[in-house]
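note to self: dont lose this again. the chain is below, predicted strucutre after it. 598 aa total, dont forget to put it in the shared folder this time
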Amino acid sequence: MKNLALFIILVTLLNLPAWSAVTPEKILPINTFAVVTVPDLNAARKIFKADPLSLMWNDPSMAAFTGKIEKAFRENVMDRIREEASVDPAEIWNLAQRQVTIALTRQPDQSSPGVILLVDSGKKIAELDRGMLLLREALADNQVEHERLRIEATDFLRMPFSGRNEGSFYLGQSESMLIITNSEQLAKTMVKNHKNPKANALLRDNPAFAIQHKAQFAGAWMYGWLDFSTVLEVVNLEIEKRRDPDAEPNPLMPEPKRVMEALGLTGLKDVGISGRTDNGMLFEINMNVPEAARRGLFSMIAPKNKDAGPPPFVPSDVVSFGRLRQSAAHIWKTFVETANEITPAAAGAMAFFQAQIQTKNPDFKLKAQLIDTMGDDFIMIEMAPRGLGLKDMINPPRLYLINSKKPKVTLRALMDIISMVIDAPPEEEEIEGRTLYSYNFGNFIDNQEASVHMMAVGEYVMFSQDLKAMKQYLDGPEEEAKPLAKFSGLNQAAKKVGGMDSGAFGFENTKIMAQGVFTMLKKNPDLISNVFRGRPRGIDPDTGLPVQENRFSEWLDFQLLPEFRQISKYFNFSVVGVRADKQGIRMGIYIPTAQTSK
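---
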């Protein structure tokens, strides 16, 4: 019997850490309507440590550059905190071992939400005990207003908010859990939930959250959830509180409730975001907006399940590619209905817009010549920047293609719209039997000339600000060029975000982008400091005047960056996809880990 008792005690002690590892849904109250959490910070730390960007930061070739930043951060931030607050930020960071959670709750009869912050110290209970003791001593020594109290047999500190804000926040420790709330009742609820999870209804008992947790959050290293119906409920209550009953009704003035309904926000039930690892990093956003309730913005952004992969004419050396399969007629119809529902004045504004164009072309008809001729295929192709200047990086060569049933009619309608801005007719150039139209908008943007070039090509209308890019496209790909569709790993990555047949798909070659940025910064090491030169860096406490000093050199020295080839192995590519089904709209972003960085 003694041996059996000893065995039970040992098993209990060995399993205590696992038993006490409380996850957010098992401690947060059922009236939680918003939560952002890292359920296991230690697991997340391991993920970050193995992430390619973290590996790049710690690469020996980066030591000179990163060492300077770390030294400046240590001396200007960490050491100052240690001196002024008598605490070590690293120790505080290391206290967080398991979940770190921020949540909002719907408080009965209160417009402001309850706020909860949870930090689980795991096995570092002794360190948390010591930290709480030091905090109490520091508050007393510095005569900071506070009150010690017991809540559910647990020590808490009540400290009033500083400034004009009324109320207080409550800080206490329940075993390994640091609990911070903005009300005593909420602190009491959290301690009860922690000590006895069966005492109250918890977030896991919320049906909407439970469905989202099972479908998306299980196994994620971080997630967030928002019950949007609760947000709308609070917003509507505030609208009613602020409504002036004596105000004269204005049918042309948009009503907040009408705006939300027209935009489709009333159909959005909840939103979930998550991050997980899957031979790379996968981020997902799920909007629970059922098809039957989908209108306004959500109706416009929900793509049709059609092929959105890169066509054969898109080469593999592009920096980015994006494609959307959505009917232009549907987008326009939904836009018009939404605008008219918000305010009847919208119809008049659209009629005025068409009338203005008709002053130059009496035969112009916006819907018949533009909207009804456009198809359901929108493509964007971005090439590598031509130079190493900041403006080159911000505005690289891009091509835009719009599918059309009558490309020449669509093109003419677009030219009629441009004529409202530019009186001069476009320049024309014949290229292989096609007419290229070029408009010059002058140099009113950053003292640089801005132009747009457009033409009908096959079943598309193509336009760009870069004439050379258009001509290169017309020349066709080089003989040895490989199409983007055959880019290594692209198909496997696309499956992570819903595939290429979901109606919306995008690709970005981060290696090409990073190479351009690295090269630009090495050749122009003063680029960032020059952008902010002459701007105030703060206020001098003695004179009260702005401080103009430029201290970027203390932190950043881009001359210390290595050659890109030394760290190129840490960069790969990313894909994005959007898929709509009867339950909602899902967007995924996936960054596969480069094989050479593993």
